[in-house]
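User: Okay, second chain of the day. Same drill as before: sequence in, structure tokens out.
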Amino acid sequence: MAGNKNSGRRPMPGNVHLLRGNPSKKGAHELHDTGNAPQLKVEAPPCPAFLTKDAKAEWRRIVKDLEILGLITKVDRAELAVYCQAWGDWKAAREKITSLEEKGMVEVTPSGYKQMSAWMQLANRAEERMRKAGDSFGLNPSARAKLGTGHVNQGELFPNEQKETAAKYGL
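Assistant: Same drill. Structure tokens below.
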């Protein structure tokens, strides 16, 4: 059997294709109509009230840049909330580990065995959640590598906020 609709590479969103510098030289009409996917307005969703203080700070730090890059819509609220809360949890666990010094990383069981501390386990799990959710927005080096460099050989006459933000994150 030759394949089905799930075979091959997934189509790249038009905004991501443009960030890569349009290497295949697709026309504008092709970039706006990539497959049958509905086009959603690039717009930052509101920050959920239930996030912790550190998670809200991360939300404020990252959401404007994601909006400029065209990588966020209102329907992405949950995924971004997962990323931000995972970051807040990771930060809290790392601060606790730092304050406990050696005991923050290794605990001794009642039988005398050494094991990874509960705080270290929490930090590791939060880091895993953070990485998985961050992949959706290109928030780590491997996810950014999938987006490409976004360098265009032609000079620009006017400031380009999207290009400047992409360069900030190494896209």
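DSSP finds seven helices and two strands in the chain.

User: Thanks, on to the next one.
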